[in-house]
Amino acid sequence: MRDLRCLFRYLGPYRRDLLIGGLLVLVETVFELTIPVFMADLIDVGVAREDVAYIVYKGVQMGICALLALVTGLLYARFAARASYGWGAQVRQAEFERVQEYAFSNLDRFETASLVTRMTTDVTVLQNAVNGGLRPLVRSPVMLAMGLGLSFWMNPRLALVFVVCAPVLAVILLLVVRQVAPMYGRLQKAVDGLNNVVQEGLTAIRAVKAFVRGEYEEEKFRTVNGELLSASQRTFHFAVLNLPAFQLVMYTSVVLIFWFGGGMILRGELLVGELTGFLSYVLQVMNSLMMISNVFLLLTRSLASAHRIVEVLEEKPALTAPARPVEEVADGSVDFETVSFKYHADAREYALAGVELHIRSGMTVGILGGTGSAKTTLVQLIPRLYDATEGTVKVGGVDVRDYDLTVLRDAVSIVLQKNELFSGTVRENLQWGAPGADDETLWAACRAARAEEFLRSMPHGLDTDLGQGGVNVSGGQKQRLCIARALLKRPKILIFDDSTSAVDTATEAGIRAALAELTGVTKLIIAQRVTSVINTDLIVILEDGRIHAAGTHAQLLASDPIYQEIYTSQMKGGEEHGGPTAQCQEA
Predict the structure, then answer these.
(1) Which of 41, 344, 398, 528 has the fewest CB atoms within 10 Å, i.e. the most exposed one?
(2) pLDDT, tens digit (0-9, with 9 covering 90-100), for 526-568
């Protein structure tokens, strides 16, 4: 219940709609419960005396009550829908905003598919709980209390049937709810699993087709789909037991009332109209118990979804700005002072260990190392995508933890290893780097990134639609657009994380030449090819998360065996294939 109370804080302006909806249900219930009283009088007085005027009079009263109940019911539907869907929109907005505040370490705790489910399916469950549960939640207790009260008022002896039957139904429903409650959490996790496979399969559809793995993916989907089916069947197998339990108790109550009531009529202790009105209250009381059981089932499922949503909302962002953050980055100098880092606090080994590195503003630094040597991890500490576990990372002579995050990241432009473009046009994607950039500025960045040539050949140029995730351009074209986007930020520090791996050597040489013209910008280039870093001011070689060596190309070629091995293997490969050695040396 704490989770639901937490989420109800997001009702905001829709709190009024919810309260009005509840009041309308209350009024509707009162009108409906008045009808059996008029019905009893109509039969016992009007029909018994053959008084047509009295029958018409009571019929009109019943009709007015029914009409007013209908009007209030329709008004309730309007206000309940506004409250539930407005609340759902507020909760989704809060979830999305909280995810935007997450650091990478926070995102590591949640699978993407799970976050999607929590913002869609789980919120829908809550909306349905309010939209479909508010009416019975307000109506059922009122009907139960008034129905029992009026039943005892009409005939206390006959009303004793409730004393026996109602507890039996309550016990059965309690057992059903206790059995179903934990199953809803497992059901939502099964939805997570299904969404994960669907997302992965559709995102990587080209790889699936290229490797002819369609049948394998179909089997994966069949497995998770079967798990969801099994979880749903187990959950709702128990959830629907409330209906037969209700019907069993209700019809037992009706039979007993007819049995005892018929005897009382024969003995002259009860009128037919009283029995008819009493049966109306019996049905209303039993129906209220049924609605209460449905509310409990809705509440049980919504509690499972609410807990999953609150987990997202209460996840504290791992990175926070200080009370008085530094609002300006002085220059592009970068200092790693005995920096160590591990992704999880309980990890046995550090991804980075004892890194000591000092980069002056305006330097161009190349970073080499084998797979898993933590090259990407190193540069991610600079814009504070992660925080160092030990030691200090400084930018512009200031600890990155002392900056306002927006200020720091505006000063650092990073082209990630995995290039990401968004649905929309080339212009819209490039303007992520400079929202107000005009065409001339955009084309200048494209020329520097060697993207102008292929953009000019497109029929709509900068207004070409890239499709979802940039599916309408090749891997190399996507890399060049990401580089252009990074250049448009005009950062103090520019980081390339293996960002030219999909372009040819001639294009890469052109990009390097354009980068060399950028003055006052610190450039860090992670690369697999020696040619990408051969002319940098400093080359850093990482091995197993530690700095193995640092120096210029000439220094490392003369003294470091690892660099000598990398250089020899790549250059010899070029000579054997009659290829790019000359280009590499010229570059």
Answers:
(1) 344
(2) 988 888 888 899 999 999 899 999 999 999 999 888 888 888 8
Q: How far is Cα 273 from Cα 45, in angstroms, rounded to an integer? A: 9
Contact at 8 Å (CB) between 179 and 238? yes
Please report the pLDDT score of residue 581 as a whole number: 38
* Dihedral sign, Cα of residue 228, residue 230, residue 235, residue 239: positive
CB 276 within 8 A of CB 40: yes
* 161-175, 394-408, 491-505: range with highest mean pLDDT: 394-408
What three-state secondary structure class fits 235? helix
Distance, in Å, from the CA atom of 540 to the CA atom of 264, rounded to the nearest integer, reads 100
CA dist., res. 11 & res. 15, Å (int): 5
pLDDT at site 572: 64
CA distance readout (Å), 377 to 134, 343, 501 = 50, 9, 18
**Integer Cα distance of 484 and 39 in angstroms:** 80
| Sequence-ordered list of residues with C-beta below 8 angstroms from that of 24, at least 6 positions apart, any chain | 72, 73, 75, 76, 79
Q: Can you read off the two tokens belonging to residue 165?
A: 């039957």
d(CA 459, CA 127): 46
Whole-angstrom Cα distance, residue 478 to residue 486? 12
Output the 3-class SS for 153-220: HHCCCCCHHHHHHHHHHHHHHHHHHHHHHHHHHHHHHHHHHHHHHHHHHHHCHHHHHHCCCHHHHHHH
Q: Which residues pair with 555 in a beta bridge?
A: none
Is residue 338 a contact partner of residue 391, using CB atoms and an 8 Å limit?
yes
| Residues 502, 479 contacting (CB under 8 angstroms) | yes
Q: Collapse the DSSP code of 237 into the 3-class scheme (helix H, G, I; strand E, B; otherwise coil) and give the result.
A: helix
- The domains of the chain are located at 2-314, 334-586
Q: Find all residues with CB under 8 Å of 378, minimum gap 6, and list them.
A: 336, 352, 355, 367, 542
The residue written with tokens 């090749």 in the block is: 474
Whether residue 176 contacts residue 239, with contact meaning beta carbons closer than 8 Å, is answered with yes
Residue 264 CB contacts under 8 Å (≥ 6 apart), including other chains? 155, 157, 158, 270, 275
Q: What is the pTM of this model?
A: 0.71
End-to-end CA distance of the chain: 66
As a whole number of angstroms, the distance between CA 449 and CA 480 comes to 5
Q: Hey, CA dihedral for 361, 104, 485, 512, is it positive or negative?
A: positive
In the chain, how long is the greatest CA-to-CA distance? 120
> CA-to-CA distance for 197 and 471, rounded, in angstroms?
20
Query: What is the fold of 2-314?
Result: ABC transporter transmembrane region fold (1.20.1560)
Distance between CA 470 and CA 387 in Å, rounded?
A: 31
The CATH topology of domain 334-586 is Rossmann fold (3.40.50)
Considering just the CA atoms, what is the radius of gyration of the chain in Å? 36
